[in-house]
Amino acid sequence: MRVISVSSRAADPVRAGVDLGRALAPIEPEVVFLFSAIHYAESDDLIQAIVDTIGQPDLIVIGNTGDGYFDASGAYDNGVVAMGLSSEGQVQWLLEQESGVQADPAGTTRRLLDRVQSASAPHKPAWCFFVSDFKTDAAEIESALSGADFPVIGGLAADDNRMHDCVLYCRDGIRRDAAFMLAALGPMRFEIAIGNSLTPVGQCGVVEAAEGSNVFRIGGQSAMDFIEQETGKPVLQSDRGITSLTIIDSDEPEIKRLRSIVPDFSRAERSLGLYGGIEAGRTVQVCLARASDLIAEVHTIAERIGSTTSQPIAALIVSCAARKSVLGHEVQREAQALSERLGEGVAIAGFPSFGEIGPLKIDGRYTRNLFHNMTYVVLLLSA
To answer: Which residue blocks in 245-381 are alpha helix, DSSP H?
Structure first.
């Protein structure tokens, strides 16, 4: 397996694409993961320049805009990063794409999953990478992905934290209102690590009224009143993505899932929009993020995977954009902790997202695929 990651902060998309393509072309990549700031989403020029410069007839491109990007040196607000992989024919890559994820997130995801499972039968993928437009109910995506018997990691595209627009990247150009799934079929050694250390505050409450990604009532009061009661302060626009609800599932006590609030998505007075819905009857508790906890867990993850994984060659990072807001300049540690622990030769690429996807690892086994907020997800690939 040969892997290279390279980044560019050239403002011109053609210049950036040519720079990336020239750096990746020597390994004749089969797949390119591409993550960028929203600046490049105005046209297909970035994609076209990369594809034309690499010149591989069957090249697969998958990626999206984020709240900036990650590379081995840290996190950046402007620019683009690309990771090229070549298995030299040992891995079969299968890319499926589907439009309409905003209106039908569950159906869109199931159709992608059905096509991947059908095309890979009688085998199953080692893992899949999934990306989606953020203007959707990610809880329905989670529900559909829970039917997969293989790990799926990825997340929701973003747009420099403006909550206005995003695009997904494929070989043919840019896509909106879409979801992509890339399956890796064949012998691949990998590990998935997830961190979501948030501090619970206040009392638990039962969700009494909810619809889609909106929660209307918790614990006998409006959703907003509940959060303000437990945190002791008003809900502000600056709380977007940072203040979260942890879902306390009595039937799955070992699984921790977070849903961050998005005041922009609220549909009624004193209700709260979320990145992913919570059905009525679930017990929740408010959680707040502390920068010191987030930094510590990234270093813990880096130490763990560095000591248990042999010959690491690449790491894909999907980390919540709200973590970036909480960490400020220290968001550099989200990537630097990995590069320092794993070594300079390990290719690193990723993006700050509006929601993260991945299974937890409990007692040496992966759970079903889950949707998260305020979470740090790493897919580590080994030779």
So the answer is: 291-308, 321-327, 333-342
Rounded Cα–Cα distance for residues 7 and 79 (Å):
7
Task: Tell me the average pLDDT across 311-336.
Answer: 92
Higher pLDDT, 258 or 346: 346
Q: So what's the pLDDT on residue 46?
A: 97
Dist. CA 36–CA 32, nearest whole Å: 13
Residue for token pair 């990723």: 350
pLDDT, greater one: 297 or 350: 350
Residues 186/90, Cβ–Cβ less than 8 Å: yes
| Res 237: pLDDT | 66
Spatial distance between the Cα atoms of 214 and 140, rounded to a whole number of angstroms: 13
Output b/e per residue, 92-118; b: 16+ Cβ within 10 A.
ebbbbbbeebbebbbebbbbbbebbbe
Using DSSP's 3-state secondary structure scheme, residue 308 falls into helix
Classify residue 261 by its DSSP letter.
Answer: B
Task: Retrieve residue 251's tokens.
Answer: 């039937």
Query: CA of 337: how far to CAs of 242, 243, 346, in Å?
Result: 22, 25, 12
Q: How far apart are CA 229 and CA 356, in angstroms?
A: 28
Classify residue 240 by its DSSP letter. T
- Label residue 369 exposed, middle or buried (CB < 10 Å: 0-12, 13-18, 19+): buried
User: Phi and psi of 167, rounded to 5°?
Assistant: -135, 155
For 44-60, what is each residue's pLDDT tens digit?
999 999 999 999 999 99
Beta-bridged to residue 93, according to DSSP, are 184
Position 238 confidence tier, pLDDT thresholds 50, 70, 90: low
Q: Where are the domains of the chain?
A: 2-195+293-382, 199-288
Q: Is 180 exposed, middle or buried (0-12, 13-18, 19+ CB in 10 A)?
A: buried
* Distance between CA atoms of residues 314 and 295, nearest Å: 21
pTM: 0.90
As a whole number, the mean pLDDT across the chain is 91
